[in-house]
Amino acid sequence: MTEEEQVEKHKDFVKVMRQTMEDFNIPLERVYNADQTGLFYNKLPNQMYVSAARKDYRGVKQMKSKDRVILMVATSAGGGKIPLFMVGKAKDPECFQLCQGNKPPMAYHHQANAWFDKEVTIVWINTVLWPWHLKHHGNVYCLLLLDNCPAHANLDSNRIPNRLVIRFFPPNCTSFLQPADMGMIASLKLGYKAIMLKTLLSICDDPVLYTDAIEAGRTARRGCKGLSCCAKAHLLDAMEIMVKIWDGEGKYAKTESIQRCWRKSGLLNAAEAADLENEIGSASVATKYKTISNNDCLELCNLFSQLQTTVGNMPFVPSVFHDTIAIQEKCTESELKDIISTWVDIESNTEIIMSEVDDAVALLCKETTAEESESDGDSDIIMVAGEENNQQQKTSWAQCMACFEIISSFLSEKEFREEKVALDGLVRRLRMKRLDATTSQLSIKSFFSAK
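Now predict its structure.
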């Protein structure tokens, strides 16, 4: 999209937003924006996070974590912070037993693949957004601005408040229209990862704390080991850190920073922007709001350098540091900066997104194949000419995919990278085409494509 097209899209959307505010008598304080983001909440980086090391898809998969959650981050144009909302795979995470009254510090919903779909969006509206709105403004109209992700569109109007008005950003415009994308989500995730590192370092640096942590880990119930046991963070750790950041006024989630993100989006008119400038000053968020600053990068690099030194002097290495740069061969300063810059926003990395989508689509195809096998053993068969008696042999979808896997392994071993990328693209298109014909679960396979 050209710069001129962006300007036109921006003007058109602002007109729609302002007309809606006028029609329903909605002031700026009751205009909300929300967006979801993935978080690998216990993944520490390894050497695959160096760009040059990722030679194929296997390298990308080593950068991911199966322990992924989705966070819904929402704010008001006045700088209000609506409570965070988390979606995970587990229905009843074991670590929640550590909560007082088994009630976690953040609203939580489980979904089999930890995706946001229409049902999850409705749950979030009714359990988080609307109660917060009622508490702060009463039962009056408000405006919610969302991207056009399929998980948000065509919600059942009978299941959401009738005084909630929803408007959608145009396709491919959230990067310059959506306040949440102006740096607030990136800052939140940066803060989370910095605090996770500092927590581990503070334990490992203190012999007494470290001994207590290891002992606590030996007696902890399965699923209840966490940062306090010098182990990988569990869901409760992730929640507590996020809530601490979001509810506080530290550098990662300041109210002023949120207001600047709204101003940066251009959704405020001249008078509103001027009033805000008088209140908080003219400083704005960085132009490249998804890029970690030099100061933040240096801080995290120093933390990792300290961790490498501390862990290197330990009699044995806790599992939380296995397969991470804390124990791998020391990298150069430029490589470490590359690793940190990638790790901070790894969930938004294009290679990771495509891998996540591929995994989700493959899982759906597998589930669909299993269901078809139970109902009809001959479903989804590819017919090929037979050699004997001019009969036709039947090739199943599973056999077809198995052949692709063999070819894919061969191409990886031979380091035929371009051919491997082409094959992956072909397999992805075939899976998408099959899903179009066999399933209606569109929100999962297109969750990221609309972002």
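The chain is about 50% helix and 10% strand.
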